[in-house]
Amino acid sequence: MAAVEVQNFLARAGDFLKGMERLRDDLAQYRSSSALLGIHGAISYSDALRTGMGSNGVSSDDHRSAARELKRMLTDRNFDKPQGADRLAKLLGKKRGIEYSAHALKENTAGDIVDQAQRFAAWAEEIGRKLKIEGW
After folding, report:
1. Crossing angle (nearest 10°) for helices 63-76 and 83-100
2. pLDDT of 71-114, one tens digit each?
């Protein structure tokens, strides 16, 4: 069952990141959408990793706890590359401001979020393969 859930989270992550990429060419107009799609893609990758490592909970209202849990799970496995969990925490820290701030997101900030989301996705793909997560 976990393998199917992992695959569903991976499909969702890919969907979000494809949308992010399509909008990236016009960040001046779609900066918030592109940034949020990147963050949601990272959340889905985190859900896939955590589910594949045995977590029963997925990201919901408290996304920051998901980043902490991911780092703890990797540390418990003595995994030597937990820095992606820190990148996830930074991305998640920007989510609420993009959604609710009265200030417009700057284009360069959106571009940085998109870049960080892509880096997190690449890291998550590497981790999923290295850990041989079922369904990856």
Report:
1. 180
2. 999 999 888 778 899 999 999 999 999 999 999 999 999 999 99
In the chain, domain spans: 2-130
Task: Tokens for 19, please give them.
Answer: 């949308």
Task: State the virtual CA torsion across 93, 21, 84, 62 in degrees, nearest 10.
Answer: 40
Number of H helices, E strands in the chain: 5, 0
Classify domain 2-130 at the CATH class level. mainly alpha
Residues 50, 28: Cα–Cα separation, whole Å = 34
pTM over 0.85: yes
